[in-house]
Design goal:
Layout: E1 2-4, E2 9-11, E3 15-18, E4 21-24, H1 28-33, E5 42-47, E6 52-57, H2 69-81, H3 83-90
Antiparallel strand pairs: 1-2, 3-4, 5-6
Length: 92
C-alpha cells in the first residue's frame, strides 16, 4: 500500500522475523527505481527523537583509478536505457 505526496511516496510494510533479525521488504517499485540488486548494501540511519529509520543506497566509497563518479552515473543511465538489449546480447 502506498500514499503519494508531491515529493515522496510512502509505503506500508510488515515486519518479519528471519532468525534473530527483524526484516522489512523493499517494494519492487523502489528497488527498480534505485536499481537495487541482491547482496548490495543499504545505509540505515536512525533519527533519534523522530523514531525514524531512513534507508538509502550506499555510495561507492572508492572508485578505481581513472574512473570518476560522473562516468558511473552516465553508465548507469545507459545500462538502464538498454537493459533489455544487453540481456539479449548476454544470452547469445
Amino acid at each position: 500500500m502506498s500514499v503519494e505526496t508531491m515529493k515522496e511516496k510512502r509505503f506500508t510494510r510488515k515486519i518479519h522475523q528471519t532468525g534473530n533479525s527483524l526484516t522489512v521488504g523493499i517494494p519492487s517499485e523502489i528497488s527498480e527505481k534505485l536499481n537495487l540488486q541482491k547482496g548490495e548494501e543499504l545505509e540505515a540511519i536512525f533519527v533519534e527523537g523522530k523514531d525514524e529509520i531512513i534507508y538509502r543506497k550506499k555510495e561507492i566509497s572508492y572508485l578505481p583509478k581513472g574512473i570518476d563518479k560522473e562516468f558511473l552515473t552516465v553508465l548507469e543511465g545507459v545500462i538502464d536505457d538498454y537493459h533489455e538489449a544487453l540481456l539479449n546480447l548476454k544470452d547469445r
